[in-house]
């Protein structure tokens, strides 16, 4: 079966920057367990609490800034720690691995999404539910990234995993007015007023 690299996004939870023994640490949830995602294009998704167990036995997960492989922050072999808890997988990293600007953007909530990249090893689909529910049972976790904008919420990349599994999904039309409003809000947030003088 063709293995597709996928990304998922959610708002950072339990994020904090704190001082511990004169060392600044940054921590938060890397990915949530048993939480239903938003619609990914005809299906929703949950992550089984055991989905990362095999990966964490022998992994070197990387933390990137904005999914940019040319802008790595840290990785497990250089200080990133990952810990499984009841609600999800949590990360902790030395704040010195981040730039002051990155920390400021996260602390102020400008960058408030966390994203993780993975390849599915094992999953199951419940087609009796509406929408269809996909449960990730075993994944190869490759990277986690603080991001400004989600990589996607509903695209062909997500739907391809359903097609690969032979799952038929209902097509869902997106309200053009909703699309227009989201586009307008994004443009307003991205617009920067500059005063260049006379």
Question: Can you put this structure into words, describing what you see?
Answer:
There is one protein chain. With 198 residues, the chain is α+β, with helices and mostly antiparallel strands. It has one domain (5-190). The protein is 19% helix and 40% strand. It has four helices and ten strands. Strands 1, 4, 5, 6, 9 and 10 form a six-stranded mixed β-sheet that branches. Strands 2-3-8-7 form a four-stranded antiparallel β-sheet, with no helix packed on it. Strand 2 and strand 3 (23-32) form a beta hairpin. 23% of the residues are buried. The model is unreliable at 192-198 (pLDDT under 50).
Key features of this structure:
198 residues, 10 strands, 19% helix, 40% strand
Concise overview:
The protein has helices at 53-57, 100-107, 156-164, 176-190, and strands spanning 5-11, 16-20, 23-32, 43-47, 62-65, 68-75, 81-84, 88-94, 113-126, 132-147.
């Amino acid at each position: 079966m063709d293995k597709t690299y996928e990304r998922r996004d959610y708002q950072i939870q339990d994020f904090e920057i704190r001082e511990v023994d004169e060392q600044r640490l940054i921590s938060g949830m890397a990915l949530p367990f048993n939480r239903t995602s938003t619609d990914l294009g005809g299906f929703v998704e949950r992550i089984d609490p055991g989905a990362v167990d095999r990966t964490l036995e022998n992994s070197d997960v990387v933390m990137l800034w904005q999914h940019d492989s040319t802008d790595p922050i840290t990785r497990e072999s250089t200080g990133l720690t990952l810990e499984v808890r009841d609600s999800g997988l949590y990360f902790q990293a030395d704040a010195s691995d981040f730039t002051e600007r990155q920390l400021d953007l996260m602390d102020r909530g400008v960058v408030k999404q966390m994203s993780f990249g993975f390849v599915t090893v094992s999953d199951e689909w419940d087609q009796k539910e509406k929408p269809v529910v996909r449960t990730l049972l075993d994944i190869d976790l490759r990277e986690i990234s603080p991001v400004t904008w989600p990589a996607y919420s509903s695209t062909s990349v997500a739907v391809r995993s359903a097609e690969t599994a032979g799952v038929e999904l209902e097509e869902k039309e997106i309200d053009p007015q909703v699309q227009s409003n989201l586009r307008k809000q994004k443009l307003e947030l991205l617009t920067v007023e500059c005063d260049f003088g006379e």
